[in-house]
Amino acid sequence: MVNGIERPLDVLNNSKGKEVLVQLKNNRQMVGTLLAFDIHINTVLDNAREIVDGESKRSFGLTFLRGDTVIFISPASIAKE
Question: Considering only CA atoms, which of 21, 14, 6, 8 is closest in space to residue 73?
């Protein structure tokens, strides 16, 4: 066990209420506050915005992302380093 993580979804549980970066299959990136997710990685972000070439392009607010479009989810603070 590392940092309280025993299972893959523990990473997402630890990220609830925090900003995350979501890479989507269509080569888009979204950043927002992780509110909820399920076992299919269907994800709800608050204050979501699309990132293009490292810059915020469009704001979406409260957003549902379908799990089969998600490639990865990372804590946004790690992704910015």
Answer: 21
Q: Which tens digits make up the pLDDT trace of 16-25?
A: 999 999 999 9
Say what the pTM is: 0.85
- Pairwise CA distance, residues 5 & 30, whole Å: 24
Q: Edge-to-edge, what's the strand order for the sheet holding 43-52? A: 55-65, 43-52, 29-37, 19-24, 70-75
Residue found under tokens 């799990």: 67
Strands 43-52, 29-37: pairing is: antiparallel
Q: What residues does each domain of the chain span?
A: 8-79
Please state, in angstroms and rounded to a whole number, the distance separating the CA atoms of residues 76 and 81: 9
Separation of alpha carbons 4 and 8, rounded Å? 11
What class does CATH assign to 8-79? Answer: mainly beta
